[in-house]
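The instructor's notes for this session suggest beginning with a concrete chain rather than abstract definitions. Hand out the sequence below and ask the class to guess, before any prediction is shown, which regions might be ordered.
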Amino acid sequence: MTYATEPLSRMQIRKYTYFIRSILKCNTVLMFPVVRFLEILPSFIGDKDFCYIVVSDSDLPFNIHAEFDLEENCIRIKESVYEGACNGVGRDRMTIVHEIGHVLLLKYNGLKLYRSFEHDIPIYCDPEWQAKCFAGELLIPAHLIQDMTIEEISKECGVSPQAAAYQLSTISRKR
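After discussion, reveal the predicted structure:
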């Protein structure tokens, strides 16, 4: 059994992240302020009940770095991941934005999550792909990286070289 949600294309998500960057007045900023965005997220979404909690690394399974609990309306983040994001570690920055993507794409863009008994749902209906795409688009904005190398993107956007390479490859594809 797989979970699916309403379809979103990469271009729709790209436009949404551009809109978010516009509201935050950081459309020309390469290094997105991940931790600051996390801190202001409750006021950004207008939900005083939303929270994020930094937990001990042992409070989440070893392979879970952060999670969004829709029922509790809360993101839980391992302490090492939060500290890594504060220190500019690309993977940790991406992890936090991935969970923020779940919050914004599922909860505040209209929650329609359903079980699919088909093993192969279209990728654009996969909530995990959508959150991953959201993180890539927010942290590595297509309109700013077109003439940059992978190494420049990694350094200037604060992401891993793998994330930089993948995001750069999406610009040349028509979506």
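Then share the key points. Helices lie at 10-23, 34-45, 79-86, 90-107, 127-139, 142-145, 150-157, 161-172. Residues 2-172 form one domain.
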